[in-house]
Amino acid sequence: MRVALFSDIHGKILLPFKLVDLYQKQTGNAVDFILQCGDMGAYPNIENLDKATIKHAQYDRDELGFHDDFTKINPDIQAFLNQLNINMICVRGNHEDHDFLDELEKENFQNSLFPIDVYEKVFVCKSGLKQELKTENETLTFVGIGRIGDRKGRSEKRFVQDYEKKEIRKLLKTKDNFDILITHDKDNSGEENYGMPEIRNILDHVIFHYHFYGHTGEPFKQETDCNGITQSIKIKELEFNASGILEKGCMIILTKENGELSIEVVDQKLTNTMTKYNWKDQ
User: Fold this and answer.
1) Mean pLDDT of the chain, nearest integer
2) Cα–Cα nearest to 122, from 9, 261, 279
3) What is the pLDDT of residues 1-22, one digit of tens each?
């Protein structure tokens, strides 16, 4: 099983699918799923954009990619996604239309994840619930935790909600081990008043082999978590730099083979094929 991981796509919903298609063609290695660490930019209605997205969208229409390309059927995009036949599973970030996502989550109350787009290729997983991805020979277990932490008692929907904290606390009683944890925010073991305490608590009490996150703006990095077990990986945001190219560590491939996990940081020679100026035409 191979899983491609991305973070902070900010409306460029189609770009991870195109990068996976390119990776498969150039390497000959099939990818089974995409996981995405939040800030999808899931805004179906432009009038609901937050201030940061409004600011960026004035200069970059890609910020509105969910609205433009994934709320009504584009035959070309539909044909491409159907041929690729890979689902992307995301956690919520802080830059999403949470009212829109809340309604879909309520409608799918019996399921641990739910589709959010017109093609039913993009899914959001509920925070704190056990998830499984299956192929013929492998099963990957993971937990997602969306949104960001807060130390000031604020209740806006960009912050982790009480019902999600309840589900996360339930994990503390589990005796299961998991392959990976995907979150938008980082844990709070670094800077004061930054990060999500719930993530730190989970990493201290539940065994995960890998933890992938985004949000912080830091470069790609891989290090052993302070629990001494989990490999913690900051995925570089899927953003084009001033030169119009994607930066190192924006695309990670996780492989599970015969029960063993390994990761590949996709070479920039591949990702540089898609620039800010040509990626939609690739």
Assistant:
1) 95
2) 9
3) 999 999 999 999 999 999 999 9
CA distance between the termini of the chain: 26
Distance between CA atoms of 103 and 100, rounded to whole angstroms? 5
Which architecture characterizes domain 2-281 according to CATH? Answer: 4-Layer Sandwich (3.60)
- Confidence at residue 56, expressed as pLDDT on a 0 to 100 scale: 87
Beta pairing partners, 231: 210, 224
- Beta-carbon contacts of 63 under 8 Å, excluding residues fewer than 6 positions away, are 10, 11, 41, 53, 56, 57
pTM of the model: 0.96
Q: Could you give the C-alpha distances from 72 to 10, 41, 117, 118, 122, in angstroms and in order?
A: 18, 16, 8, 6, 14
Alpha-carbon gap, residue 62 to 57, rounded angstroms? 7
Look up residue 241 and give its amino acid. N
Smallest CA-to-CA distance from 210 within 268, 276, 256, 244 is with 256
Q: Which residues contact 44 (CB under 8 A, 6 or more apart)?
A: 66, 67, 71, 97, 100
